[in-house]
UniProtKB/TrEMBL annotation:
UniProt keyword Amino-acid biosynthesis present: no
Protein's organism: Cupriavidus neocaledonicus
Keywords attached to this entry: Transferase
SUPFAM superfamilies associated with the record: ClpP/crotonase
MF-aspect GO terms: acetyl-CoA carboxylase activity; carboxy-lyase activity; transferase activity
Identification of the protein by name: Malonate decarboxylase, beta subunit
Transferase in keyword set: yes
Pfam families: Carboxyl_trans
GO terms for biological process, alphabetical: carbohydrate metabolic process; fatty acid biosynthetic process; malonyl-CoA biosynthetic process
Superkingdom of origin organism: Bacteria
Length: 283
C-alpha cells in the first residue's frame, strides 16, 4: 500500500468493536441486542478489584450485509484483552444458537465473529472455559446451515480457546496486522524459554502467526488490507458461499500428515512451515 492509499484508507483496525460491527452491516440495519444499557456485566470482576464493563466487552448486533440476515458478534479487545468470561461468552453462544434456530425456522441467518481476544478470562477460570466450549458447539451447529465467518483484524489477535473457535468457522479473514495462534507469544516464551520463542521479536512473531502466513498455510482463507470497504466486501463474498462439504476442522488426516513430517529438533523458518502445511493439506 503506497502513501496515497494509506492516507485514503478507512481503517477497520482502528475502530472499536461496536464501530466494526456497524461498518460491516448495511446502513440503517444495525440493531444491538443485550447492549450496555441492559447492564449485563460480569459479577466476578469487582470482588477481584477489576472494574467491569456494562456489555462485558462483547457487542451483539443484528442486521444485514448485502441484504443477507446476519448476526455480528464483536469482541472488544480494549477491555481485558478481549478475554472471554461467563457473560460475554454467553452472549456470543446464545446469539449463535438463536441464529441456528432461525435457520431451522426457515430464516437463513448467517454469523460474523470479530475476534480480538486472548482467550479465556483468567479471573473467571472454569466459567470462561465453559462459555468458550458453548461457543464452539454453537459454531458447529450453525455452520451446517449457513456460513460462519471469522475476522481477525488486529491488534490483539486471536489466541487460546477462541483460536479454536476461529478454526471452527466456515471461513476466516485476516489482515497483515492480525495474529492467530493457540498460545500467545508470552505464554510460549514463559513455558519454552526465550531461545524457543522471543515474544519481543515482532517480525519473528508475525512471520509465524500473522495474517500473511496463516493464509499461506491454509489456516485462514482470505487476506484483506486494513480498509473498511475491503473488509466488508470480503466478508460479504464469504457469506454468499454455499455451506462447505467439509470444514477445515474436519480435515484431520491432512493436518496430521503435515505434523508427522515436522522435524522438531530444529527451529523451522516461516518458509519451511508454509511448505510443510501446503504439502500436508494438499495430500
Amino acid at each position: 500500500m503506497n502513501t496515497a492509499e494509506l492516507l485514503a484508507r478507512n481503517s477497520f483496525i482502528e475502530l472499536g468493536a461496536r464501530e466494526r460491527a456497524r461498518a460491516l452491516l448495511d446502513p440503517g440495519t444495525f440493531r444491538e441486542l443485550a447492549g450496555p444499557f441492559d447492564g449485563l456485566q460480569s459479577p466476578w470482576l469487582p470482588p477481584q478489584g477489576v472494574v467491569p464493563q456494562s456489555d462485558d466487552g462483547v457487542v451483539v448486533a443484528k442486521g444485514r450485509i448485502d441484504g443477507m440476515p446476519v448476526v455480528v458478534l464483536a469482541i472488544e479487545g480494549a477491555f481485558q484483552g478481549g478475554s472471554m468470561g461467563e457473560v460475554g461468552g454467553a452472549k456470543i453462544a446464545g446469539a449463535l444458537e438463536l441464529a441456528a434456530d432461525d435457520n431451522r425456522r426457515g430464516e437463513p441467518t448467517r454469523a460474523v465473529l470479530l475476534l480480538e481476544t486472548g482467550g479465556v478470562r483468567l479471573q473467571e477460570a472454569n466459567l470462561g472455559l465453559a462459555a468458550i466450549a458453548e461457543i464452539h458447539a454453537a459454531i458447529v451447529d450453525l455452520r451446517r446451515y449457513q456460513p460462519v465467518v471469522g475476522v481477525i483484524a488486529g491488534q490483539v489477535g486471536c489466541f487460546g480457546g477462541m483460536s479454536i473457535a476461529a478454526g471452527l468457522c466456515s471461513a476466516l479473514v485476516m489482515t497483515q496486522e492480525g495474529r492467530l495462534g493457540l498460545n500467545g507469544p508470552a505464554v510460549i516464551e514463559q513455558e519454552a524459554g526465550i531461545a524457543e520463542y522471543d515474544s519481543r521479536d515482532r517480525p519473528f512473531i508475525w512471520s509465524f502467526t500473522g495474517g500473511t502466513q496463516r493464509v499461506a498455510t491454509g489456516f485462514a482463507d482470505a487476506f484483506v488490507d486494513d480498509d473498511c470497504d475491503a473488509m466488508r466486501a470480503q466478508v460479504a463474498a464469504l457469506l454468499r458461499e454455499p455451506v462447505a462439504a467439509s470444514h477445515r476442522s474436519e480435515q484431520v488426516a491432512q493436518y496430521l500428515a503435515a505434523l508427522q513430517a515436522y522435524d522438531a529438533s530444529a527451529q523451522p523458518t516461516p518458509a519451511q512451515v508454509r511448505a510443510l502445511f501446503q504439502r500436508g493439506t494438499d495430500a
